[in-house]
Design brief:
Distance between the termini of chain B: 11 Å
Oligomer: heterotrimer
Largest sheet of chain B: none
Radius of gyration of chain A: 19 Å
Shape of chain B: globular
Largest interface: A-B, 41 and 40 residues
Largest sheet of chain A: 2 strands, antiparallel
Radius of gyration of chain B: 21 Å
Shape of chain A: globular
Structural class of chain A: mainly alpha
Order of helices and strands of chain B: HHHHHHHHHHHHHH
Chains: A mainly alpha (290), B mainly alpha (321), C alpha/beta (250)
Order of helices and strands of chain A: HHHHEEHHHHHHH
Distance between the termini of chain A: 45 Å
Number of helices of chain B: 14
Helix content of chain A: over 70%
């Protein structure tokens, strides 16, 4: 029983990490109408940047997260301006943008590998360590901390999206880009902001992950894949679905890892993907389409 | 007057093609083992790139995990030959068959739903295949792979010639398909609503394209592992699919010559610039982005534009006679 | 003899009833006009008839056969083809290429002949038939032109050529003269006349009064998803309800 609770809580931690990834991915898919296959690479970049700031400059964790958020976001926007925006402006099918992100993914992966070497990096300069005992069961403090912090960030994001002008503009642009342009919303800038937020979030997420798991330049793929599966599972276009899906699948993976072990995480997610396609392609909360 | 120029080009193309084929068949007889082996590897990559091109360049379906079939084909042949002691040609036939079956099984649920799901499923497939290969040690030898895979023939010359013949075979099959109603149906997939309104079952043809493409990837995989002598899990990896994608896009999706040239160029490049070979993938990816934004028709587009200008120039010369 | 019978056709989307209880018949060799204010459900009706949408309720009988449950691509082989309001073409192909694709259902699809390169003869006859279709719509010299170089008018008649390549018994045309000048409009209307003369029935969505008056044997009027009138063009023009729905007063 204790084991179950521990694995369950581990799953919640995983879910928290996935939430930051999945919500960003949904944001980009709904406002910009393309799939960002390099999303996981921004997550990976975040891990390296946070490590870099903390180790090379002795900056504290929170400040490092802020720097990482900004820098990751800016790099993302840089790529978007030079490669994705021209596609959108020329009216070409957005699948080309998706293909471009595959190129971006490889550039980032090899760029990071060149700058920082491809070795596995462990958890360096942990922010919090040790474990906490609750009711006789031991929980790892970093994981609890991450779970709570991620939840706060998501709450902040939802506040931004549902209670501010900017958020309203984002939602309008995702519902109907043409109409919102007619209403004076600068679609271009809003999309830029959306992309900045999305990849910045992924970067922060990577920073969190680096506190509890080892990482290499190649962890991006797995993250992107899981992100997409979560979106399909929760329902494309639904932020709430992304949140729900993240925690549900995170817990599922946590339990699976605890009881069966091995690197079957990806297999689990892939199985969910195929299952969803066979039974309910709209996902749990997705919009029903003709 | 204009006809003269066109006739010259028409006959020139056949002469060049003939010379080129003679050259390719003669390679093992004058070049050393190293070069023959390298050209054989190039041929396999051309086979893969054309298979990928069929999917992306004609139907517009972007698969981000075709390398999974490359690996499935390779491992099928390797396992059958090494562990079950089947003859190599059976291994290869089974490789193609198994790749086809897998793609059919996967294609049916993912193609009937929205296009983006196909990209997701193939994306997952590549990674999952790689992981399954790494985990299932008893069958696949785990992360270290399967060494000591016997070559196609004892003589490198014969192995090379077989690969060359199979690449030509692939070309003939694809050209036959693409110049018929099948090819037109593939192209029609780009405007699904219109295609359906004129009676084309787009789901059916998407699956056909996917299975044919995957079958040839499987064939390429089988040939590759026998050429290399070694099979490893990263044959299914993102890098491999990335390569196919890059060669197709840079060469010009929807054409044959461009992707062929790109495949050969990128396969040979790491051998020429050996010390910098780790940077080649980075350059390829950067080039992909640049090409898609600035020169979406790739090398073929450049070649066509240059030829067009040259022909116009020749015509102006003719007129001033 | 009715070529098409539509019975109690109803189509609802989530929360919106786009078509309600629409019933009508179309006789052989006739041209029927479908009019109504924007948003009345005209294109939705065509989408239902060509099975781009599932019907919520109702029945469609074509040449005596119930086609209500068919899949989209199966409708064409029964003899119905439609065009799109926003002219839809295969942008990467030439004009001839577009029509060739349209001939798909009439090609003897033999894989063996394809793979052994023995289908030359069939390909040639298919090509000639495609050129004939281009000539019929007046695009004779445009066969090898890429679609991007064809004018708006050319694109509209090309989409009709593609539809004709399927050798239909019934053609559902959605606003064929939108955006055309007087001369071009006349050409398209003449084209539709000759299509009817060749034995094809036509259901025509149009706003252009001249088109409706000159061409149609019968006119059906939709408003807010309901059929509000059916009759000859002159009856419809004098119908009070129709005047009210279009002009706001009778």
């Amino acid at each position: 029983m204790e084991f179950f609770i521990q694995q369950f809580v581990n799953g919640l931690t995983l879910g928290s990490i996935y939430v930051l990834i999945a919500v960003g991915l949904t944001l980009v898919m709904s406002t910009m109408h393309f799939a960002n296959f390099s999303h996981g690479q921004f997550y990976m970049l975040g891990a390296y940047l946070v490590g870099f700031f903390m180790n090379s400059y002795g900056i504290n964790f929170f400040l490092a997260l802020v720097f990482t958020f900004v820098i990751t976001g800016l790099i993302a926007v840089g790529f978007e301006r030079i490669s994705i925006r021209p596609i959108r402006v020329r009216g070409l099918p957005m699948i080309i943008a998706g293909v471009i992100t595959i190129g971006i993914a490889e550039v980032l992966t090899y760029g990071v590998a060149a700058l920082w070497s491809a070795d596995v990096r462990g958890v360096s300069s942990p922010f919090i360590s040790g474990s906490l005992a609750i009711g006789g069961i031991y929980f790892s403090k970093p994981r609890i901390f991450i779970t709570i912090f991620a939840f706060c960030i998501i709450a902040l994001l939802f506040l931004l999206i549902y209670r501010t002008e900017v958020g309203r503009a984002l939602r309008a642009a995702s519902e109907d880009t043409e109409m919102s342009a007619l209403l004076g919303i600068n679609a271009d800038r809003i999309m830029c902001l959306g992309f900045f937020l999305s990849c910045g979030l992924a970067g922060i997420c990577g920073g969190f992950m680096a506190q509890i798991l080892p990482y290499t330049p190649f962890i991006g793929l797995s993250a992107t894949l899981k992100g997409f599966v979560i979106i399909v599972f929760g329902g494309m276009g639904s932020m709430v679905g992304a949140v729900l899906g993240s925690y549900l699948l995170g817990v599922g993976e946590g339990l699976l890892k605890g009881y069966i072990g091995g690197s079957y995480g990806e297999l689990f997610f892939f199985g969910i993907l195929v299952l969803m396609l066979l039974t309910r392609p709209g996902g749990l909360l997705g919009k029903v389409e003709e | 007057m204009n006809r003269r120029v066109e006739d010259i080009f028409y006959h020139l193309r056949f002469i060049l093609l003939g010379l080129f084929l003679v050259f390719m068949f003669a390679i093992p007889f004058w070049a050393g083992n190293f070069v023959t082996h390298l050209v054989a590897v190039c041929c396999v990559w051309v086979m893969l790139t054309w298979a990928y091109n069929l999917l992306m360049g004609y139907t517009g379906l972007v698969s981000i995990g075709q390398a999974a079939f490359f690996a499935i084909g390779g491992y099928t042949s390797a396992i059958l030959v090494l562990k079950c002691h089947f003859p190599i040609y059976i291994g290869i036939l089974c490789a193609v068959f198994i790749s086809g079956v897998f793609s059919l099984a996967l294609g049916i649920p993912s193609i009937r739903t929205r296009g983006i799901y196909f990209a997701f499923v193939t994306f997952g497939l590549g990674e999952v295949t790689r992981l399954v290969i790494e985990e299932w040690e008893s069958l696949t030898g785990g992360p270290f792979g399967l060494p000591n895979i016997p070559p196609l023939f004892d003589s490198l010359t014969l192995s090379y010639l077989l690969i060359l013949v199979l690449v030509i075979f692939e070309y003939l099959i694809m050209q036959a398909l693409l110049r018929s109603h099948v090819g037109r149906s593939f192209v029609s997939i780009r405007n699904e609503h219109l295609a359906e309104s004129v009676g084309i079952d787009t789901s059916h043809y998407k699956i056909v394209a996917f299975v044919v493409s995957s079958g040839f990837c499987g064939l390429g995989g089988a040939l590759y592992v026998h050429l290399l002598g070694h099979a490893y899990s990263h044959l299914a990896g993102f890098m491999m699919t990335g390569n196919m994608l890059i060669y197709t896009a840079i060469g010009g999706a929807g054409t044959f010559l461009g992707p062929c040239v790109a495949a050969v160029f990128f396969t040979i490049l790491p051998q020429i610039f050996y010390p910098a070979r780790a940077y080649i993938p980075f350059i390829g990816a950067a080039l992909l982005i640049i090409m898609l934004v600035c020169l979406p028709e790739g090398i073929s587009g450049i070649f066509r534009d240059v030829t067009l200008r040259f022909v116009r120039f020749l015509r102006t010369l003719e007129k001033s006679d | 003899m009715n070529i098409l019978e539509v019975k109690n056709l109803t189509k609802t989307f989530v929360g919106i009833c786009a078509l309600e209880d629409v019933s009508f018949n179309i006789g052989e060799n006739s041209i029927v006009g479908l009019i109504g204010p924007n948003g009345a459900g005209k294109t939705t009706l065509i989408n239902c008839l060509s099975k781009f949408y599932h019907l919520t309720r109702g029945k469609i009988v074509f040449k005596g056969e119930d086609i209500t449950k068919l899949k989209t691509f199966q409708v064409c082989s029964k003899g119905i083809v439609r065009t799109f309001q926003l002219t839809s073409l295969f942008e990467t192909e030439s004009a001839l290429g577009n029509v060739l694709i349209g001939q798909h259902i009439h090609i003897k699809r033999n894989l063996w002949h394809v793979l052994t390169y023995t289908n030359r003869e069939q390909e040639n006859s298919v090509r000639n038939a495609a050129i004939e279709k281009l000539e019929f719509v007046g695009l004779a010299g445009f066969a090898d032109k890429p679609v991007s170089e064809i004018s708006h008018f050319g694109r509209k008649v090309l989409s009709i050529a593609i539809a004709l390549a399927t050798q239909p018994k019934m053609l559902l045309i959605d606003e064929p003269v939108a955006g055309l000048d007087n001369e071009e409009t006349t050409k398209v209307l003449d084209l539709i006349s000759s299509i009817r003369a060749s034995g094809v029935s036509v259901l025509l969505i149009e706003h252009n009064v001249k088109a409706i008056m000159s061409l149609c044997d019968k006119v059906i009027v939709l408003n807010f998803g309901r059929k509000i009138a059916e009759g000859t063009p002159s009856e419809i023009v004098n119908n009070k309800e129709v005047q009210k729905s279009y002009l706001g007063y009778a």
